[in-house]
Amino acid sequence: xxxxxxxIGAGRxxxxxxxxxxxRVPEADLVAVVDPRPGAADLVAGPLGATAxxxxxxxxxxxxxxxxxxxxxxxxxxxxxxxxxxxxxxVFCEKPAGLSLAEIxxxxxxxxxxxxxxxxxxxxxxAADFAAAHELITGxxxxxxxxxxxxxxxxxxxxxxxxxxPLWTIFTQTLIHDFDxxxxxxxxxxxVDVLATADALxxxxxxxxxHLDTAVVVxxxxxxxxxxAEASFAAAYGYDVRGEIFGSGGMVTMGEGATTALxxxxxxxxxxxxxxxxxxxxxxxxxxxxxxxxxAIQEKRPAAVTGDDAWAAYAIAQACIDSxxxxxxVAVAR
Amino acid sequence: xxxxxxxIGAGRxxxxxxxxxxxRVPEADLVAVVDPRPGAADLVAGPLGATAxxxxxxxxxxxxxxxxxxxxxxxxxxxxxxxxxxxxxxVFCEKPAGLSLAEIxxxxxxxxxxxxxxxxxxxxxxAADFAAAHELITGxxxxxxxxxxxxxxxxxxxxxxxxxxPLWTIFTQTLIHDFDxxxxxxxxxxxVDVLATADALxxxxxxxxxHLDTAVVVxxxxxxxxxxAEASFAAAYGYDVRGEIFGSGGMVTMGEGATTALxxxxxxxxxxxxxxxxxxxxxxxxxxxxxxxxxAIQEKRPAAVTGDDAWAAYAIAQACIDSxxxxxxVAVAR
Amino acid sequence: xxxxxxxIGAGRxxxxxxxxxxxRVPEADLVAVVDPRPGAADLVAGPLGATAxxxxxxxxxxxxxxxxxxxxxxxxxxxxxxxxxxxxxxVFCEKPAGLSLAEIxxxxxxxxxxxxxxxxxxxxxxAADFAAAHELITGxxxxxxxxxxxxxxxxxxxxxxxxxxPLWTIFTQTLIHDFDxxxxxxxxxxxVDVLATADALxxxxxxxxxHLDTAVVVxxxxxxxxxxAEASFAAAYGYDVRGEIFGSGGMVTMGEGATTALxxxxxxxxxxxxxxxxxxxxxxxxxxxxxxxxxAIQEKRPAAVTGDDAWAAYAIAQACIDSxxxxxxVAVAR
Amino acid sequence: xxxxxxxIGAGRxxxxxxxxxxxRVPEADLVAVVDPRPGAADLVAGPLGATAxxxxxxxxxxxxxxxxxxxxxxxxxxxxxxxxxxxxxxVFCEKPAGLSLAEIxxxxxxxxxxxxxxxxxxxxxxAADFAAAHELITGxxxxxxxxxxxxxxxxxxxxxxxxxxPLWTIFTQTLIHDFDxxxxxxxxxxxVDVLATADALxxxxxxxxxHLDTAVVVxxxxxxxxxxAEASFAAAYGYDVRGEIFGSGGMVTMGEGATTALxxxxxxxxxxxxxxxxxxxxxxxxxxxxxxxxxAIQEKRPAAVTGDDAWAAYAIAQACIDSxxxxxxVAVAR
Lengths: 334, 334, 334, 334
Hints:
homotetramer; alpha/beta; six-stranded parallel β-sheet; 15 strands; about 25% strand; globular; Gfo/Idh/MocA-like_OxRdtase_C (chains A, B, C, D); Gfo/Idh/MocA-like_OxRdtase_N (chains A, B, C, D); Dehydrogenase (chains A, B, C, D)
């Protein structure tokens, strides 16, 4: 029995999730798309044979909806999670699951109390190479983890209006992927403290106002492992998502960037083309995470990414914010 | 309006195609799976919500079926194509579309006369890297094509019973993919003659009975380009599907073999894992070809791979067979 | 006219440098090898047709010696540099050129006062890929430098006796290569402050005594660039020397690790063999730096790596030591 | 005791060999450079401290010369080998060692009778990746050899005056490297027959006069292995020298083409720079072959590449010429 899913938020990523739910996840049945903006839901729902709605209440009241996938504005995440949970709906929410540790904790509690599945959109865990790395690491193939690196660089020339990007976005929305990746690829250990270094290098004019676009974070883990998380809002050569886990017995590296295995050899040398679109580069992992969400519901078990994971990643982001303020190392909340 | 498709032949590749049609091609609606073997169709159709049937006649008589995808035994291809065409059904058929040039010509004529879409399963055209190569070549990016290479190597240790593999299979079923690839990547030119060299190197005991498992074919094209097609039934390191097109202005290379971008660095060096399963390695191209089939039907146009393409590739295979018999170069029929 | 060189210190790296001077650098004439240990110099000098000596004084007094290459114990570097300079000999010295900023400053002053060429063994600048990166960066090919990474990992399982490794070696002898590389690949900028994170992860038993084997350093530069330098004393997969410079216009990556272009494809996947020997991996850059030294002497100009470079790299190492003590960010001396 | 070598022929490759002998091969002492053209030898010999001569007779009569390295015009190879052997000089000769099987046989006999070392310039055997492949193959690492490929493509846009290139050059001077490589990497087997396909695709105007610039050769070996040798005189992307040996237990691939490990990632994608100069790309193998020659002399043993190898490779080239004439498969002389 497929899971009957309503998608909330028909923006760019919402449209991609809707298409994935309707066409690529057999365990899902996309029944509705909700967006308060007139016509927005129709554009997405129409071609996929789903119902377009403007009110979340209609979805939450509908017994024919089992679960919601939240791709609305980040500021709305927390409320949507708690009200959906209260209505007995399973919840998948794009990261971050809230705007503070308190909000994420509340979301975690609300979903746990309601007994629903709660999964956060840390899609990198479902990328084929990162998943294979996790399997090798948990199988002991690289020994004790000692050094880690995870990075996220957005393609292009940076935000059109850097000043409109919420403060600390680089930590709470970009690097949060890397924080979860690092936590997950160092199983059994937890982040102890962080030291963040960040700046406005792409748009130096916004340095004073604190709109950071480039960051490097050093995280120490309870097993001694030292991790680096790196982000930039503007990679000229396209999306760049990589990982490197170095252990006493070896190393795994992940992330490639080439769109296909094609290589062009010409007067300029040998070239691989690189990806400019996240929904192209990451479609496999978007599919994987939504399939996992549906399967967890079907199998009445917690999803592979839990509210605890959301909290733990956000705790690192929060420590980064504090580290930027204090200039020093900051302990990570547990 | 999705295309209502019946799948004929619930074997290994049929099961994969059924799953692709049901779950990965939104333009398709898998309505039925047909297999004369008791219970075979049920196993495939059940989980996909399609009807299981044992008789093709039921499908051909059903006005609610728009198209058939033929994944039955090769010996049945020709009859299924012609009877389906006569019933007004669009036809996608796994390669080869028949067991002789005459059969393929008859299939081409029957589908043309019936005015239905006819597409043959040359899936390599839909692999992302080969498709990108085609785009670059047709865009003039590598100049005049001069040297070409296409190869197919099956993973593992070879057929369990080499004696049961039909004679000339390496040309008519394996290398036919490479013949089509070469024809397609040398646009505007046609194969002039071939010289085949083949042997039983994996199972030398079957050399006398003619069960060839290793082959190299040299093809000369009308624009002077010299092409090599290579095949082996047993690659220890997994599936190996590659291409290399060299022109006056540069070269494109395709085919990678690594399952993911993961690299494991350990005492043995740096390793990439390779693929052992065609339905894993090629799922993207299987999806692409079936989506193209459905779109061609929806848009009332010929598919990207036509009966003429099927005929042209088989003409090379036939010339290979003749070349093996004569020992010399053999002209390719036009 | 080849430069007449005496090599001081017939240890492992000294033997390599002697062979390079005698056989690979046509601008050099290896005239003597000096080592106070009985017989040590003979072993190296004999096969190369050089004179074996036990006293540095003999070399310094000999007018037929133009230059010395110092590969003696690190503790002796400073004295050897200053006495050689006083004797009017040009000096190439393995890194570090002293055991403190004061020593390196004295060496820099002594050689400047004597008017001799003084070069420090930052060989990474002469590796083909790093040299090509430098050319692209100085040519503006990647725009403004924003993020940098340089790493050094030694092959194997770590020092046989971690307790015998001098304290802070990871900063003053290992990462000093990376500090110079980062300084050099960010032309026109200087290091502002550092924050060091280091631990004994390979030999945790030596943590208390401060014998660090794993380190991550974050360096902020005057142009805003944020750099990471990483080191480990034990990489299971062999020597690992890499660099990555990310700018507003693109990125260069350096370091490969594979010993040759050979790839082995077998049941385990596709493998590249990796290097376990520095004198193998780096022989090209050792040759390059010694050739540069001789050419600078012949052309009566400063060498490409100067005493100022030695001082600047050591200043970062010193700041790392201070950062480890204070736990916070430390300004880099200028 | 270094081998005292005279270099004959101060052309482009002669100049490279002279520099290698003088500066990179410690086992060699370059004593003279001979070239009949006034001043040619001086240009090469001067900077290397060797004597410049215009007459080969002076070298052959000089007891202080142990060996000659022949880099003269191909037409002179045979005479130089036989007269040098008669004078008791060891001989290294660029490929091919003559202009016919008879000439090469005579050279082989003359050197054997004189008891001197005779080595032919099949430098590919000394490239690091090809040498590693040979070691793996002879160690049984890829099982029984079944399919082989070796290719040589020259960089650039082809010969300035295609009509001045001697007929059959592509077989006797270019592919002869590949023929030797294939023979060597299929140890214990010998070439049985060949089928050559070649054309003038770069300079089609010279097709009629037989100046071939593009060739594909299929060679069958006594162990059943099927080999392909490919050549082109004009690769837009630079030198391309690759090999691929496929066996029952795995595959080795050789040849990379990138000048260094540097990768440039920018708006165009990810690029590796490729090599345009053979003396850059192959300097390692040129050094290796000349070092082997000197060591064989010092150790009074045959060199790793013998007159028999020269003959066997030329026998394939001769069979290619015959195959082009007859249009069919031609047996390879033994």
